[in-house]
Inverse folding.
């Protein structure tokens, strides 16, 4: 019993405790009485214990006073307790039979459904058998290794003109257990990539560093099989220049001034793109390379980068 809960009679106990102890309570919250043979009932209270009052009609088929079942049928079904659909609660009625003079038997317990909802797994990537992928400007091969892990049935070929980078890439692929599906070539992607060979060509964060971006994209277009695409990932600069620039734009300008732009301009002639490569520049390079279908992929919150899908 909860502390502080007053009762009308010192011998009264709560319904659940009474049921657990095998007792019932009087309808006037009187002292608890044990179940068993009914005690003699005074004449003035006989009608409260189920006896027929003078002049009360007898139910059809009943012999003498109506019993508890017929009384309930005549009075109607038990009081219904509405379900709380708002909170997804499940009413559960107590299954003990009703005892005359006791408490209302429809004791309802609300059992909340706490089972979490199952999330639907995303659809797996299409896995065409024997697909060939190219990673241009692969560096030390981490992007090629990631592609091979994402597409277990595909083979990946990486191209980079820096020999130490391709040597490190070969070691990384071997450590990942992908030597049979990932290979690297030390060569310039503008001249070394074979034509009509790959189902998809990727270029991760290298287009803005190249002195000849149009020739680079033209070589990627020639390497595609029918229906293939070129995917370019590069810095997510603003669509247009605006002053004062935001924090990301200022950071990109700092990288461009000290690293990317000098590297690109070290080879002449050079497009001198720099780190701040805007979508308009990517569309211009792609259209001049024969890739007229340019889409920005809906990949958000991925660092400072933006993904482009280029197709002939």
């Amino acid at each position: 019993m909860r502390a502080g809960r007053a009762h009308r009679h010192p011998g009264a106990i709560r319904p659940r405790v009474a049921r657990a102890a095998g007792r019932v309570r009087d309808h006037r919250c009187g002292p608890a009485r044990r179940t068993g043979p009914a005690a003699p009932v005074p004449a003035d209270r006989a009608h409260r214990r189920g006896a027929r009052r003078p002049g009360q009609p007898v139910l059809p088929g009943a012999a003498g006073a109506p019993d508890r079942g017929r009384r309930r049928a005549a009075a109607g079904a038990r009081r219904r307790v509405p379900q709380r659909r708002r909170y997804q609660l499940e009413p559960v009625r107590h299954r003990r039979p009703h005892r005359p003079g006791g408490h209302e038997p429809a004791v309802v317990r609300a059992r909340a459904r706490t089972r979490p909802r199952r999330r639907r797994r995303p659809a797996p990537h299409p896995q065409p058998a024997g697909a060939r992928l190219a990673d241009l400007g692969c560096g030390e091969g981490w992007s090629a290794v990631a592609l091979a892990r994402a597409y277990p049935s595909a083979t990946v070929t990486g191209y980079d003109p820096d020999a130490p980078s391709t040597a490190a890439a070969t070691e990384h692929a071997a450590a990942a257990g992908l030597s049979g599906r990932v290979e690297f070539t030390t060569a310039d992607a503008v001249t070394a990539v074979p034509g009509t060979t790959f189902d998809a060509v990727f270029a991760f964060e290298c287009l803005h560093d190249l002195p000849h971006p149009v020739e680079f994209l033209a070589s990627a277009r020639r390497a595609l099989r029918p229906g293939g695409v070129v995917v370019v990932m590069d810095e997510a600069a603003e669509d247009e220049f605006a002053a004062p620039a935001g924090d990301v734009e200022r950071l990109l300008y700092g990288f461009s001034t000290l690293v990317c732009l000098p590297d690109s301009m070290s080879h002449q002639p050079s497009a001198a793109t720099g780190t701040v490569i805007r979508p308009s520049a990517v569309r211009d390079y792609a259209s001049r390379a024969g890739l007229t279908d340019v889409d920005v992929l809906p990949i958000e919150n991925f660092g400072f980068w933006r993904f482009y899908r280029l197709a002939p």
